[in-house]
């Protein structure tokens, strides 16, 4: 399975998001990861549907929208209309995860589920046959630039084994503490969609940073 790089605009220059996203498109990014935070589920507050809608006009990149918000059921239609291609919801934020996934899919969008580092895989096992991706948070969500949590690798391996055993088709996505070393460990464990924020945007050359991540895992596919 080819590895996709999804830079997170959480680490981008928020005063110039249009050009930051254009830069990603020109630099070989496969997706753009958009973190939506409400100041409740996580401490930070970022952007909402109006900003995503404004950005949608300026790029054809796949919009991977990650809702770190309470009561996501109330807001799905707004993000669908904003131009999201995939909507990820946290298992920890809803009592009716299957219904929420079905709601997203009813709009013709891809639907994914995220789990925090301390959340066990068993919490989402019953919906694995429904989702397009599972996002394993490899840091505690809310802020960029955190250190990778090593025990999350076991969860990636568990998901990969479940996928193979059950014949599921979901991709495994990881978010947090990604660099040239941790990306290799994640891909070895079974991940194929790699979110990288500060590693990409804090680099001198965004294109070169994306290329380095891809090059780091090329040997694993040989």
Write the layout of secondary structure elements.
Elements: E1 4-7, H1 17-26, E2 31-37, H2 49-56, E3 62-68, H3 76-82, E4 86-90, H4 97-106, E5 110-115, E6 133-137, H5 152-166, E7 171-175, H6 182-189, E8 193-196, H7 198-201, H8 206-218
Q: Would you list the SSEs in sequence order as H and E?
A: EHEHEHEHEEHEHEHH
CATH class: Alpha Beta
Percentage of residues in helical conformation: 25-40%
Task: Quote the CATH topology.
Answer: TIM Barrel
Shape: globular
Q: What can be said about the biggest beta sheet? A: 8 strands, parallel
Low-confidence stretches: none
Quickly count the helices. 8
CATH superfamily: Aldolase class I
Biggest sheet, spatial arrangement of strands = 1-8-7-6-5-4-3-2
Count of discrete structural domains: 1
Radius of gyration over all CA atoms, rounded: 16 Å
Number of strands: 8
Cofactor: Fe(2+); Zn(2+); Co(2+); a divalent metal cation
EC number: 5.1.3.1
Family: Belongs to the ribulose-phosphate 3-epimerase family.
GO molecular function, one term: D-ribulose-phosphate 3-epimerase activity
Question: Could you characterize the architecture of this molecule?
Answer:
This protein has a single domain, classed as TIM Barrel. 39% of the residues are buried. The longest helix is centred in the C-terminal third of the chain and has 15 residues, at 152-166. It starts with a strand and ends with a helix. α2 runs parallel beside α3. The chain has eight helices and eight strands, in the order βαβαβαβαββαβαβαα. The model has no long low-confidence stretch (mean pLDDT 95). It has an eight-stranded parallel sheet with strand order 1-8-7-6-5-4-3-2. Helix content is 34%, strand content 19%. It has helices spanning 17-26, 49-56, 76-82, 97-106, 152-166, 182-189, 198-201, 206-218, and strands at residues 4-7, 31-37, 62-68, 86-90, 110-115, 133-137, 171-175, 193-196. The protein is globular. With 222 residues, it is α/β, with parallel strands linked by helices.
């Amino acid at each position: 399975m080819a590895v996709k790089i999804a830079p997170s605009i959480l680490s981008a220059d928020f005063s110039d998001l249009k050009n930051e996203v254009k830069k990603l498109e020109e630099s070989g990014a496969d997706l753009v990861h958009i973190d939506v935070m409400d100041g409740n589920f996580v401490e930070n507050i970022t952007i909402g549907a109006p900003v995503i809608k404004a950005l949608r006009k300026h790029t054809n990149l796949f919009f991977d929208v990650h809702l770190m918000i309470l009561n996501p059921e109330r807001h799905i239609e707004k993000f669908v209309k904003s131009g999201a291609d995939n909507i990820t919801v946290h298992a920890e934020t809803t009592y009716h995860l299957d219904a929420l996934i079905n709601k997203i899919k009813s709009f013709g969008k891809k639907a994914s589920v995220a789990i925090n580092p301390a959340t066990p895989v068993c919490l989402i096992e019953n919906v694995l046959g429904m989702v397009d991706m599972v996002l394993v948070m490899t840091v505690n969500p809310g802020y960029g630039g955190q250190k990778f949590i090593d025990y999350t690798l076991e969860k990636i391996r568990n998901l990969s084994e479940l996928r193979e055993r059950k014949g599921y088709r979901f991709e495994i996505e990881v978010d947090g503490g990604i660099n040239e070393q941790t990306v290799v460990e994640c891909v070895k464990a079974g991940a194929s969609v790699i979110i990288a924020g500060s590693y990409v945007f804090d680099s001198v050359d965004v294109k070169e940073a994306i290329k380095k991540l891809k090059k780091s895992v090329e040997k694993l596919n040989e």
